[in-house]
Design goal:
Elements lengths: L1 E2 L20 E2 L2 E2 H10 L5 E6 L3 H10 L6 E6 L6 H9 L8 E6 L2 E3 L3 H9 L5 E6 L5 E5 L5 E6 L5 E3 L7 E12 L14 H8 L5 E5 L5 E3 L4 H9 L2
Helix pairs in contact: 3-5
């Protein structure tokens, strides 16, 4: 699933007249970049959620026949649901799938998804979250075994702890995750909520692990200053 419903407020003025998924990097939209990124790892069935300028995303997908993938639209036109609510709304589309990939449309990376998927499948973890050692305003907190234990806002020092253990290690979340179907069966929230809040809730009684891909390229193209850098790194 690609999260493409966001308002893209950090990309104004572009997002005053188009969705962030249609920002172009070297003449390809972020949507196309990430659909083709998934294809490199054998993923051809993709759910895309839409809200902001939803029809423009649908038109691009139809014009290019899904860029060679089978695209399903999860329609959030009536209300944007954030990442957690968006996943819950799309849950019926995952029927019969034991595990699935979810990522943000404004992320570009050279992370080897094949290795991450293999690492996830070797465990019985409810979720595997791609993380890196890098500066960020918010960090996920992990124990020595890379089990998710908490979250910290580095600007306010607010913390949310699922497991109070010593020497928690901070990692920045990359907006990429492999989830087991169990996640969809254990969502207690309704309406609009974030995946991070869901993960912290689940981490109290289930294992959610971090997958450290420090050293890979990763650019959040949700900010205008990232576009030029992305065009240099992702040809």
């Amino acid at each position: 699933m690609l999260f493409a419903a966001g308002l893209g407020t950090r990309l104004k003025p572009f997002t005053n007249h188009a969705p962030k998924a249609l920002v172009e990097i070297n003449n390809k939209s972020l949507l196309e970049h990430n659909i083709r990124y998934m294809q490199r790892f054998g993923i051809y069935d993709v759910i895309v959620n839409v809200h902001h300028f939803a029809s423009m995303i649908e038109e691009l997908i139809n014009e290019h026949d899904g860029f060679g993938s089978n695209i399903t639209i999860s329609d959030e036109r009536n209300e944007i649901l954030e990442t957690g609510g968006g996943l819950k709304k799309a849950a019926p589309y995952f029927a019969g799938e034991d595990h699935f990939l979810v990522m943000n449309v404004d992320i570009l990376t050279n992370l080897d998804l094949g290795k991450m998927i293999a690492a996830h499948l070797m465990t019985s973890n409810m979720a595997t979250l791609a993380v890196m050692q890098r500066e960020s305003s918010r960090h996920l907190l992990f124990d020595k075994d890379m089990r998710l234990c908490g979250w910290r806002n580095n600007n306010t020092n607010e913390e949310k702890i699922a497991h109070a253990v010593p020497d928690l290690k901070p990692f920045a979340f990359s907006g990429i995750q492999i989830l087991s179907h169990q996640v969809l069966e254990n969502i207690p929230f309704e309406g609009k909520f974030s995946l991070i809040d869901l993960y912290l809730y689940l981490a109290k009684s289930h294992v959610l692990s971090g997958y450290d891909h420090t050293g890979n390229l990763l650019i959040d193209v949700g900010k205008p200053e990232s576009i030029e850098k992305a065009e240099y790194l992702f040809q």
